[in-house]
Protein: histidine kinase
Organism: Stigmatella aurantiaca
Amino acid sequence: MVPSDFENVLHLLPQAMLRVGPELQVQWLEADFARKVGLSLTVGRGLLEGLEYSRSRDALARAVRTGRSYAGHLITSAMRQVRVQVQPAGEAEPPGAWLIFDPSGMDDEEAFSQVVQQVARAVGETLDVDSVCSAAVLALVRCAQVRRAEVFLCEEGTQGALRRAAVSDLADRDSPEDTFDPAADPFQHALATRRAQIGVQRGYGDSMGSIFAAVPLCAPKRTVGLLLLYKEQGASFSVRELDLWMAAAGQLAVAVENARLLREAQAALRVREEFMSIASHELKTPLTPLKLSLYTMERRIATGQPVELASVLKSKRQVDRLAGLVDDLLDASRLELGKLAMHAAPLELGQLVAEVVDHFRHAFERPFSVSVSRSRVWVQGDRDRLEQVLVNLLENAHKYSPAGAPITVEVEEGGDEARIHVKDHGIGIPGADQAQVFQRFYRARNVSHRNFGGLGLGLFISHSICKMHGGNLTLSSAEGQGSTFSVSLPRMSAREVGRLPRRVLLLDEDRLQEDEAARVLRAEGFEVLTVRDGNEALRQEAHLPVDLILLSASASQKEVGVFLETFATLPRARPVPILLAGARLPTWAQEGTVLCARPYRQDELVARVRNTLALTPDPGWPVAEEVMVRM
């Protein structure tokens, strides 16, 4: 007879007991069964529902059904490993069997203490991240009851990527642990919750799996990686043990984070020292010839000799170079403080590119080619800042390309974006440097400070300006084969562009007629520019694209010739059509030129201007670039 208080003392035993029928339905289980084993069962429920599939589970089922004894290890649905003994029911008892569960795991604070001491000793010897991780995994294998230990660290600047930093064994044979999948649920859950997770390593050994623990490395402000612990079959992790390894992982995480901070601090010091060296060299380079040139001019003036214009221009170039270096430093500082001013307004990229490239054509003996789309490409941007980006890209293309090599600039539109591509055939940028060229003070390793000047700020500033416009600056390059830098910016919508005024450039020798034409066109929403203030005013106004030139047909050939000659010197991205106004076409007009009545009649003037603007100039259309006036 079983004593009546038998069940009252079962909670004192570490083992847990239950009885099952021949089909493995639970017939009886002790009250503390779930607490001891971590498996929630109820009378009448099938035992196999609470166990992970394995050959051991099949062997257990066969033993119960055939009335044989059995002993082996099983994995519960709660990811805990247990040892099970099967005792078949006696002949006089109902069919079935008694099962005794032995929960595995250990609560070894001494092992934890030894591991923490080993990690602390490693940190005292070195702050190299991988060295500290290697010491930690070796300490775990030596001091704790784990078969294998690994550390995976989160890669800087990547989303979810993990790098194996240390492993406790280097067995020649492959093992299932070598096929680590960072996207697996236990690893992702451990990283997300910052709590240890239990998983099953399937396919190892004779059984279908063994248990591992994924312990996150939690630094104060972020999770820096994972500690993976594998045990021999038959062993598992208790809750207390996982708490201990979480604490040990925290110590390791702090060591890893300190090592990272030290590495970043050392890198920052190296960058600062290198920058100070480069900056002093770059600032001194223009100062020396500038000082000598000023001394020379001072002596010539003191002795009554004339100062040569070439000396003044040379000094001016050195001053401009110094001003550029100082501006770069100031812009970099403003960007760091978030105080770089931006003044956005509608801007046509083709016109901007044409102007900047035209400046480079006059400054350098090198072929520059420009390709723009037929339709105008409008963006909302700060003209001066975007010009700064384009100038920097062209200066780099010129500086790093061999003499005479062509440089190509393309403007295109794609979807909601406008793009500018600057392509050169220079030295290119090594692949290892391409991800870092937009960092402050960074210079590619194939760039020598002796042969190529600069502070390493131009691309950093340009990239930041593009970002502030809601766009981006990207790079495609191969060492020795040139580079292509691409600026992408959000395009203005068709509705926004439709609200922009069209620009008409007006020349009429009769001020009254000119005022009348300007009044009529402005009333219709056009922006009218006149050149009565001279050619300099024309140059200043032409920084935005001109849509149409309205010329008086009765103006003198000299006046028209000077105007067209001046206009022809201005950079333009696309041809500009001409509309003549008068009683008849002048002798210098090309065949097919459209004529508008003058004195101006409001309805006809507006209709002729709108019709001319609606047409796309073809190769035979009279445009400002082709009209020649015989003087």
Observations:
- The chain has a mean pLDDT of 78.
- The two ends are 133 Å apart (CA to CA).
- DSSP finds 16 helices and 22 strands in the chain.
- Residues 501-615 form a domain with the Rossmann fold fold (CATH 3.40.50.2300).
